[in-house]
Amino acid sequence: MSAGVDVRVDALGGALHSDLGDHALWFRPRRYPDSLALSIIDAIFSTGARYATVENILDRYIAYRDGQGGDVAVDGAPELLATFAEVGSPGAWAQDIGNRRPTSTTPGAPLKAEAVKEAATRLLAAGISTAEDFRSAADSDALQVVRSVWREVPGQRSGFTWAYLQLLVGIPALRVDGVVATYIARVLDVSEDDVDGDLVSGLIVEVARRNEWDEREIPMAIWRAEQRARSSGSR
Predict the structure, then answer these.
(1) What percentage of the chain reaches a pLDDT higher than 90?
(2) N or C, which end of the chain is more exposed by having fewer CB within 10 Å?
(3) CA nearest 143: which of 168, 158, 126?
(4) DSSP secondary structure of the chain
(5) What is the mean pLDDT of the segment spanning 15-40?
C-alpha cells in the first residue's frame, strides 16, 4: 500500500476504535444469508430498537414457522407474506410475532409490521422472491430498481435499512451504497464522490487485517453506530 493509503487506513482504524468502542462488544446481527424473510424483518425492526428486541421477534417468527414444519433458513417473500395471510392482518402479525412499534414518530404512522408486509409484497412484485434473487439483482442494473421499490415502503426512505438489508443478504460492503461510504467519507474528510467501492473494500480489508478482525463485521458495526447516532439526533 502507498503511504497515502496507509494514512487512510490509520484514520479509519482510529475512528473505528473511537466510535465503535471495544471490538468484543461490537454489533453482530444474526447471520441468515439465505432467508430473505428474516432479513426483511431484521432490517425493518432494527431501526430505533435494541437488537435484543429484534432477536425476540426473529425467535417468534422462527417458532411460528417451525410449528408449521417450514424451513425458515430459506424463507423468502412468499413464505413471509403467507404468515400475514394466516394470522389475518398486519395488526394480528404485530401482536403474535412482531410488536406494535410504528415506522416513525409521525402521528398515525403505520406499524413496522405493516412495513414488513409491504416490503415483501413490493420485492415479490419486482421479481425478488428469495435472497438468491436479491444477490442476482446485485450483479445487474436491476438492483437500482429494487432499491427504489424498498425505499417506497413506509419508514425506509432514508436508505439506512436498505444498506443494512444488503449486508444481511450477503452483498459485499464495497457494493453497498449509503451508510458505510458516508461514514468513511466523513472520517477521511472527503466528498462521498471520492469514496468508491474499491476504496471502501481496500480500507476495510486492511483495517481488519491489521487488527485481526473479521472484515464482515466492520460494515455491520458502522451501520449500527450510524443508526444510533441518527436516532439520537447527532447526525
Answers:
(1) 71
(2) N
(3) 126
(4) --HHHHHHHHHHHHHHHHHH--GGGS------TT-HHHHHHHHHHSTTS-HHHHHHHHHHHHHHHHHTT--GGG--HHHHHHHHHHH-SHHHHHHHTS---BSSSSTTPPBHHHHHHHHHHHHHHTT--SHHHHHHHHTSTHHHHHHHHHHTSTT-TTSHHHHHHHHHTT--GGG--SHHHHHHHHHHT--GGG--HHHHHHHHHHHHHHHT--TTHHHHHHHHHHHHHHHHT--
(5) 94
CB contact burial 93-118 (16+ within 10 A = b; e otherwise):
bbeebbbebbbbeeeeebbbbbbbbb
The rounded distance, in Å, linking the Cα atoms of 118 and 86 is 16
Cell (9 digits) for 139: 450483479
Residue 155 phi, psi (nearest 5): 85, 0
